[in-house]
Amino acid sequence: MTKRTTASPLRTNLRDREPAFALMSRLAAIGGTSAVDFGSDIGVPFGKVLKGSTPALQRLVALTGCQPDAFHVWTPTLVGTAKRSVNGHLFPIRPMLTPVVRGCPNCLLEDINGSELAPHRAMTYRTHWLIQHMGVCLKHEQELVPLWKEVAPAKRYDTAEQFRVMSKDVADGVLKSEEREASDFEIWFDHRLARQSQTPTWLDDHPLHAAAVFCRLLGAALLRLHGVSPSHVPASSQWGCYEMGFEVARDGAEAIRDALHELNRLAEPRLGPKGVFPILYDRLSREHLHDPDFEPYRVLLRQHLMETWPLAVGDDLLGEPVTQRKLHSVQSAAEETGVDRRRLRKLLEAAGMIDADLPDAWAVFDAGEGTDILKSLVTYLSAKEFAAANHICRSQFDLLVEDGILRPAISDVSTKHVWNPLDGRELITELLTGSISIQQAQHGWETIAKSAQRLKLRPAEIIMAIRDGRLQHVARNVQFRGYQSVHVYHDEVAQVLAQDLPSAMSLEMFSKTVGLRNPAYMTRLVKDGHVATIEMRNPRTKALQRYIGPAEAAAFHDRFVTLRILSRIRGESWQSLSSKLRDAGVAPFKLGDTDYGNIFLKNDVQKALSE
User: Fold this and answer.
1) Where are the alpha helices (DSSP H) in 433-549?
2) How far is 198 from 422, CA to CA, in rounded Å?
3) Cα separation of 452 and 424, whole Å?
4) Exposed, middle or buried by CB within 10 Å (0-12, 13-18, 19+), for 241?
5) 591 pLDDT band (50/70/90 cuts)?
6) Residues 6+ apart with CB under 8 A from 454
7) In the 8-state DSSP scheme, what is residue 7?
8) Where are the domains of the chain?
9) Distance CA 411, CA 204 (A)
10) pLDDT of residue 362
């Protein structure tokens, strides 16, 4: 006898670009229940479906009769701990799971008009609306708009229930969006996401998310060619940045390098790459530094910088300090040697070492090959000329000479021109080796002269402490040149060299040593009673100050840890550790709305990393 099979009442079809969680929500709406309760009834936890769990999706396939592989195309599936896969393309979780859910009102209205079902059951949520790189509906050429906002994921993605609340606004045309023609980037992105054929581009060989981010970053940099600052571009116009970057990047590496060359001419090299294309440079050198998907773009930018920038010792090269100059420009060589710039340029052009069409700041040549020419052109200077060439004020120059830091190249007393300008450059290079670059002096950074003056020290004492490694924090301020660009962290100088200061650390210095860049966070921790201090009188200023003594420091390290400390202990980058903690659900220490910066409870971190 043949056993009769009863058709499941849950039989349905997966709609175009519909994720599994939206289908499950539609089924729950049949019985007027939530997706969470419905999942509990059928033995398929809604939370598992939201993560694209294979067993959960297989169970839905069995119940609904959908094709076995249908869910895996447009259902965001958890890969590892930090990414989701959509049709084989990987995207970071966090940008996809924002509380604000977007969509196209016209698509939803078509769903209602084309169905006999109740509006909230007729409407379909499309997966590509989750992806922030897309800002427009290609079908209706209208901007995607916020549909609802919900913090709790289980409620946020119970789409049928959310549609129930807003269905009248959709049906009545209350929910409107701006008309806009889809950009070439958006058409390309949508086709790649759906794996549809289209005109090939250079970007096709690179992971989709990284390619899209690079287009946006490059586009933001290219805004400067039109006199526009990225900070002036509202969120609703970010699609323009994607488009500008895509127009260049789709044609390949050579086109990208040409665009970077154009950007070079907008600023002085001494401002550093961050001063020319700040967002692009910052993201590739920090946020995406360890993501292999961004490696092609880092390689391109690194090659561009090494081939066109006269990077000096102490400059930043994608997160690493420059330790040896590779290229000189006419301008940088003239400044270091004191040679007349016009004379130097004529000689270099005659030797075929520079591009005659480039300005002095960007006309570069190999620093090693140019050594002999520069030495042959060096003209010895007077003390006044030497100090000016190396941007040393005369009083500082005299102190450095008195203490033997600077010495004349020759002892011929019959002439004033006894100073070799290269000696000044060698001193500055020595001081900046291993330094970092800063855009401006803040949070305790001072010139050697100012720090020495405040502590009643001689500048030679600070220079000797840098040379023997007692002072670890040295920076090159890109706003200044020569000796004036060398900055030290004042509290560290005070701690190391001012013997009559308290042995305990000031709050600012302690913040710096543990890796809290903004001292205000430490002040806030102290004020709110989370970090103990001692009150001592500063023997120089005679003012009562709060300090972190050895016991207080030990108590801090027993309770808290920072990314900088973790990085030192574990030998991993702080970016990698930050990602691990985020994936493990460990958030920075915070009480209420009070922000204490990137500081974590030590027990939480140890537990998360051990697991």
Assistant:
1) 448-454, 459-467, 490-497, 507-514, 519-527
2) 58
3) 20
4) buried
5) confident
6) 446, 490
7) P
8) 20-171, 184-309, 386-499, 502-611
9) 66
10) 92
Q: Which residue do the tokens 């924090």 mark?
A: 473
Segment (H or E) for 74: helix 70-74
Residue 96 has pLDDT above 90, yes or no: no
The number of CA neighbours under 13 Å toward the Cβ of 548 is 24
CA dist 514 → 396, 511, 553 (Å): 33, 5, 10
> Which amino acid appears at position 409 of this protein?
A
**Cβ neighbours for 474, distance < 8 A, ≥ 6 positions apart:** 431, 432, 434, 435, 436, 466, 486, 487, 488
Residues 6+ apart with CB under 8 A from 371: none
**Average pLDDT value for residue range 1-15:** 63
Structure tokens at 153: 């994921």
Joined tokens for residue 291 = 């993501």
The Cα angle at residue 29 between residues 23 and 30, in degrees rounded to 5? 100
Give the span between the Cα atoms of 104 and 191, in whole angstroms.
Answer: 18
Only one residue has tokens 């690179």, namely 206
Taking the C-alpha atoms of residue 185 and residue 243, their distance in angstroms, rounded to an integer, is: 5
The gap from C-alpha 139 to its chain's centroid, in whole angstroms, comes to: 34
**Residue linked to tokens 């084989």:** 88
Report CA 342 to chain centroid distance, whole Å: 40
CB 280 within 8 A of CB 218: yes
Asked if residue 500 has pLDDT above 60, the reply is: no
pLDDT at 20: 94
pTM (2 decimals)? 0.72
434 φ/ψ angles, rounded to the nearest 5 degrees:
80, 5
In this structure, how many other beta carbons lie within 10 angstroms of the beta carbon of residue 309?
21
Between CA 15 and CA 218 the distance in angstroms is: 36
User: 105-113 and 159-171 are packed helices; what angle lies between their axes, rounded to 10 degrees?
Assistant: 90
Q: Which of 590, 596, 561, 592 is nearest to 578 (CA)?
A: 561
Give the DSSP H or E segment for 85. Answer: strand 83-86
Contact indicator for 575, 287 with CB cutoff of 8 Å:
yes
Tell the residue number behind the tokens 């550790």, with chain if given: 577
Helix axes 507-514, 519-527, angle to 10 degrees: 110
575-585 average pLDDT score:
80
Q: For residues 467 and 404, what is the distance between their CA atoms, to the nearest angstrom?
A: 14
Confidence of residue 3 (pLDDT cuts 50, 70, 90): very low
Task: Look at residue 132 and tell me whether its pLDDT is greater than 90.
Answer: yes
pLDDT reading at 381 higher than 50: yes
**DSSP result, 327-389:** EEEHHHHHHHH---HHHHHHHHHHTT-S-TTS-TTT-EEETTTTHHHHHHH---B-HHHHHHH
**Alpha carbon distance 167, 409 (integer Å):** 85
Provide the residue type at 281 as one letter: Y
Q: β-strands 505-506, 544-548: how paired?
A: antiparallel
Q: Which helix (H) or strand (E) holds 558?
A: helix 550-559
Q: Compute the distance between CA of residue 437 and CA of residue 381 in angstroms, rounded to an integer.
A: 29
